[in-house]
């Protein structure tokens, strides 16, 4: 039988899971996850969640000001106000659900400092906050009978109907299925895999952004990409694990190839300047020194404190034969986060009727030109909840008549797609639009990206995961480079 749902949620990060939990039992929800439920950018988030929870030491105006400063005042002020004022209740809701945020000696939530923040306002679970949140949300979702979960399921098409959407899904056994839903919340994550090196998980190929774009949704500021200054400089791994902002917040210093501190040469805030500033400083110092060898040094701190505060980072570095209590950590900037995405309003509504977007794939305007540390999980919570609230109100007003008849299966057969498209796209993006972009390379990069996308779309290729992800990466590259080109020309 064809299946129909009230709501389709695409993605199992914080935004998708938290949205699913907002719906009452009489609302049917289909939540699909591209891989296992635990594989998301949210689960990789180390630092924590920023929220004004101690008003004796902090206030909303300060959090708003810090967000504006980091975002170079290109943020949507109304969206920031929603984020900052509503966010604390969502963080406390997570605590009620069982997220084990670290506590201080008095049993109160322990709050740390991260770059760009003027106050200690980051609640955390050691250095694996995202995973702690996602694990609890997954446990909660599993108990709700109105939520049907399909993991290892890839959305390959999303078609609009008068009363909702038809969703084409590739199932784990290689077959396909088409489901219908009256509303869709896109929570599919970022675009990290469009670069050779990223802190993002394997799912981050921009699929949701591409499907929304194909539906005609407005995509905004996709070229605003954050490059984290301190990813572990592994020799070979495409996915590089992050050395959290909080490590610098706890006193780690940046060193160049000669073992010298240098960050203060480029900004008076030194290592605690916002991420884009620190990344730029590293690239400028790299050019000045003719070396890509950079390090974080936290060896001056008590070894037991470091192990207790950063257990995951400590263990991950040990796997790379680096003991961070005794040795410098090799670091270098790489792709980390997307500030732009599917443009939404304050209720997470896109420009396509019944389509919502939340989390990293969305553009709320909260982050402006550069995301302030630990605002991303907060954004995922606040705006996914707002999306669900808006849908619930609309569902109460509707007659809930069935969506038009739809086919159960599509023909996915076709030619075998040649290898190399994704590798070439990654090289183009690294050459054209890394930390310090090279506008002279953009025209040729854009031309070739469009050529690759045209080949993918017109090649009659078999529809499988390789095809879907190549289509997504090429689409994302074209949108980014087109935007860069337009900005440069103007």
Description:
This protein is of the alpha/beta class. It has 14 helices and 17 strands. The strands form 4 sheets. Strands 1, 2, 6, 7, 8, 9 and 16 form a 7-stranded mixed beta sheet that branches. A 4-stranded antiparallel beta sheet has the order 11-14-13-12, covered by helices on one side. The chain has a 3-stranded antiparallel beta sheet with strand order 3-5-4. α12 packs parallel to α14. The protein is globular. The mean pLDDT is 93.
Tell me the layout of helices and strands.
Layout: E1 3-10, H1 14-20, E2 29-32, H2 41-44, E3 49-50, H3 60-70, H4 77-97, E4 111-112, E5 122-123, H5 129-142, E6 147-150, E7 154-161, E8 164-170, E9 176-186, H6 207-215, E10 219-220, E11 225-232, H7 245-249, E12 253-255, H8 275-289, E13 294-297, H9 303-309, H10 311-319, E14 329-338, E15 341-343, E16 355-357, E17 362-363, H11 376-397, H12 421-432, H13 442-458, H14 465-489
Parallel strand pairs: 1-2, 1-9, 2-6, 9-16, 15-17
Antiparallel strand pairs: 3-5, 4-5, 7-8, 8-9, 10-15, 11-14, 12-13, 13-14
Task: Summarize, please.
The protein is of the alpha/beta class. It contains 14 helices and 17 strands.
Q: State the end-to-end CA separation.
A: 53 Å
From the alpha carbons, calculate the radius of gyration and give it in angstroms.
22 Å
Calculate the mean pLDDT score and round it.
Answer: 93
Q: How many strands in all?
A: 17
Kindly estimate the percentage of residues that lie in beta strands according to DSSP: 15-25%
Structural class: alpha/beta
Fraction of residues in helices?
25-40%
List keywords for this structure.
490 residues, alpha/beta, 7-stranded mixed beta sheet, 4-stranded antiparallel beta sheet, 14 helices, 17% strand, globular
């Amino acid at each position: 039988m064809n299946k129909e749902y009230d709501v389709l949620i695409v993605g199992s990060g914080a935004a998708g899971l938290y949205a699913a939990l907002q719906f009452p039992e009489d609302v049917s929800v289909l939540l699909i996850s591209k891989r296992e439920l635990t594989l998301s950018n949210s689960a990789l988030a180390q630092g924590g969640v920023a929220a004004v929870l101690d008003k004796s030491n902090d206030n909303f105006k300060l959090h708003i000001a810090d967000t504006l400063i980091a975002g170079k005042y290109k943020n949507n002020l109304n969206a920031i106000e929603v984020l900052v004022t509503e966010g604390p209740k969502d963080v406390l809701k997570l605590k009620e659900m069982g997220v084990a945020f670290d506590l201080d000696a008095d049993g109160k939530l322990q709050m740390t400092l991260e770059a760009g923040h003027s106050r200690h306002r980051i609640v955390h679970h050691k250095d694996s906050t995202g995973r702690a949140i996602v694990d609890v949300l997954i446990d909660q979702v599993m108990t709700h009978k109105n939520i049907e979960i399909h993991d290892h399921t890839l959305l390959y098409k999303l078609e609009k109907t008068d009363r909702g959407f038809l969703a084409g899904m590739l199932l784990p056994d290689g077959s396909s299925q088409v489901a219908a839903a009256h509303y869709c919340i896109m929570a599919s994550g970022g675009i990290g895999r469009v670069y050779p090196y990223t802190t993002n998980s394997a799912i981050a190929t921009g699929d949701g952004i591409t499907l929304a774009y194909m539906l005609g949704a407005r995509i905004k500021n996709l070229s605003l990409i954050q490059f984290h200054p301190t990813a572990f400089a592994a020799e070979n791994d495409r996915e590089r694990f992050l050395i959290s902002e909080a490590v610098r917040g706890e006193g780690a210093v940046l060193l160049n190839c000669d073992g010298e501190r240098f960050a203060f040469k480029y900004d008076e805030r030194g290592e605690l300047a916002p991420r884009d500033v620190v990344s730029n400083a590293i690239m400028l110092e790299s050019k000045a020194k003719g070396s890509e060898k950079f390090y974080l040094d936290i060896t001056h701190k008590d070894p037991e404190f470091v192990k207790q505060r950063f257990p995951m980072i400590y263990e991950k570095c040990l796997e790379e034969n680096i003991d961070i209590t005794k040795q410098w950590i090799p670091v270098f900037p790489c792709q980390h986060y997307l500030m732009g995405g599917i443009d939404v309003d304050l209720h997470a509504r896109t420009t396509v009727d019944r389509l919502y977007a939340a989390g990293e794939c969305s553009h709320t305007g909260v982050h402006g030109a550069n995301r302030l540390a630990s605002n991303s999980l907060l954004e995922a919570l606040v705006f996914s909840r707002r999306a669900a609230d808006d849908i619930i109100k609309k569902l109460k007003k509707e007659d809930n008549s069935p969506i038009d008849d739809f086919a159960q299966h599509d023909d996915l057969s076709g030619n075998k797609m040649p290898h190399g498209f994704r590798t070439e796209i990654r090289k183009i993006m690294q050459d054209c639009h890394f930390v310090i972009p090279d506008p002279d390379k953009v025209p040729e990069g854009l031309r070739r990206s469009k050529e690759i996308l045209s080949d993918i779309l017109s090649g009659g290729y078999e529809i499988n995961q390789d095809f879907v992800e190549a289509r997504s990466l090429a689409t994302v590259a074209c949108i980014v480079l087109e935007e860069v080109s337009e900005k440069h020309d103007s």
